[in-house]
């Protein structure tokens, strides 16, 4: 299952179209997503950085503080600078720019990580 955490509801249809065939769970704030992760650990997380409430970085830090969530693959989706530094600092599998994102890149990540459980 893929958790998509993005407060821009306009992107939800985009993710549904690109990732059709994958089981998706949408969250429009990080608090709801973290609460749900207490119940179900996702296989992969697509995380926007600019969220209402806690930022995506705060959500990621919270995830990394729980042993059962620490190794869940995360792709950051945002228009952020210093992508390589962010990927390295936060240990994410990808940082994709919303304004330049190629749908095939997102689909490739979903295919790679959806259905795989962290060891």
Describe the structure.
By secondary structure, the protein is α/β, with parallel strands linked by helices. It has a single domain, classed as Rossmann fold, CATH 3.40.50. The model has no long low-confidence stretch (mean pLDDT 87). Helix 2 packs parallel to helix 3. 38% of the residues lie in helices and 17% in strands. The longest helix has 11 residues. It is globular. The protein contains five helices and five strands; from the N terminus they run βαβαβαβαβα. Strands 2-1-3-4-5 form a five-stranded parallel beta sheet, sandwiched between helices.
Rg (C-alpha, Å)? 13 Å
- The low-confidence parts are none
| CATH class term | Alpha Beta
Cα-to-Cα separation, first versus last residue = 16 Å
Q: Going across the major beta sheet, what is the strand order?
A: 2-1-3-4-5
What is the total tally of β strands?
5
Largest sheet: 5 strands, parallel
Overall spatial form:
globular
> How do the helices and strands follow one another from N- to C-terminus?
EHEHEHEHEH
User: Could you say what the CATH architecture is?
Assistant: 3-Layer(aba) Sandwich
How much helical structure, as a percent, in the residues? Answer: 25-40%
Q: Would you identify the CATH H-level superfamily?
A: Response regulator
- In the CATH scheme, what's the topology name? Rossmann fold
Quick rundown:
The chain is α/β, with parallel strands linked by helices. The chain has one domain: Response regulator (Rossmann fold, 3-Layer(aba) Sandwich). Helix content is 38%, strand content 17%.
Keywords:
119 residues, alpha/beta, Rossmann fold, five-stranded parallel sheet, 5 helices, 5 strands, 38% helix
